[in-house]
Specification:
By secondary structure, the protein is α/β, with parallel strands linked by helices. The protein has helices at about 25-30, 60-65, 90-95, 110-120, 200-205, 225, 250, 275-285; strands at about 5-10, 40-45, 50-55, 80-85, 105-110, 130-135, 140-145, 150-155, 180-185, 185-190, 210-215, 260-265, 285-290, 295. The chain is globular. The model has no long low-confidence stretch (mean pLDDT about 95).
């Protein structure tokens, strides 16, 4: 079978609706006028039988219940073979605590991300005699699941919010924020749910890709400030916005990527409203707005 992916969660941290937010999008989602979304996660497979999850969101239990491909095939037998986390953000690692039921799988991450997990003993709930923790070096290929090769690479970003100090660098290059290249049957897919900017290395790496899942946190850099919901811009949060001359829509315009899908979208993002002008603009530029349950082959 060909490469398959299923978006388990298309929203950024907090989901849609966010529990404490009364913005237009959250109220519309509560009323059923627009789709609700869970927090950022993706399931991938090369054979349709063995699956890996990229980022374990706090919503992972419900996401797996909704994804038939991840349902148990026996009393304690699952199609899940591996979990890979791309940074230490709460919306990408908190779900590991829901996977603590003595179920065997491999947890892949860089040394820097594994160190973040090791610093908090609550993650020892993932019994190391059952869940193997594998450290992956940047730019080294490895088998993520049967028939599916992967490679991690540095993406401009920052440390998790709970590790920030007085001074915050939002375009760090290292193993604290990574993207994932997936290769099956000679075709490449990329998963980058967090990215502060498109630098030359990233541009060269992604050019001509068959499929890209990319950070769609905000439509505009000052979106949350304008909405009265916070003081941080997208850049301060380590995220590249969709619109504007430095946004992802403009940056990826001439890169020859066959399919481009936005994921990790904040609850304030106007593209989450199906009839919005912003959604129409993104789609006119060749982008797909990710949704929970969306399947891609």
């Amino acid at each position: 079978m060909a490469f398959r992916a299923q978006i388990l969660g298309a929203a950024a941290g907090g989901g849609l609706p966010q529990w404490n937010c009364g913005c237009d999008n959250c109220n519309l989602a509560r009323g059923g006028a627009i789709p609700s979304l869970t927090q950022s996660s993706l399931a991938v497979s090369a054979d349709g039988a063995s699956w890996a999850i990229l980022n374990a969101s706090p919503d992972i239990r419900g996401q797996m219940a909704q994804a038939r491909v991840l349902h148990p095939t026996g009393l304690r037998r699952l199609p899940l073979r591996a979990v890979l986390v791309t940074n230490g953000d709460i919306d990408h690692v908190a779900g590991l605590l829901s996977l603590r039921e003595m179920q065997s799988f491999t947890l892949f991450a860089t040394a820097g991300i594994h160190d973040v997990l090791a610093q908090n003993p609550i993650f020892d709930a993932l019994n190391p005699s059952v869940v193997a923790r594998k450290t992956i070096a940047l730019d080294q290929p490895f088998e993520l699941s049967p028939g599916l090769m992967a490679r991690l690479f540095a993406v401009p970003g920052k440390v998790p919010l709970y590790l920030e100090g007085d001074a915050v660098q939002t375009d760090l290059i290292g193993d604290q924020t990574v993207g994932v290249e997936l290769v099956a049957e000679g075709k490449s897919a990329f998963y980058i749910p967090g990215c502060a900017m498109l630098n030359d290395d990233l541009r060269d790496r992604l050019r001509g890709a068959n499929l890209l899942f990319f950070d769609g946190t905000l439509w505009r850099d000052d979106e949350m400030v304008r909405a009265g919901l916070g003081e941080k811009t997208g850049r301060r949060m380590g995220h590249m916005s969709m619109s504007g001359p430095d946004g992802s829509i403009a940056a990826f315009r001439d890169m020859g990527i066959a399919r481009k899908i936005f994921v990790h979208m904040n609850n304030t993002n106007p593209v989450l409203r199906p009839a919005s002008d912003e959604k129409a603009q993104a789609e006119a530029a060749g982008w797909i707005i990710g949704q929970d349950g969306m399947e891609i082959t």
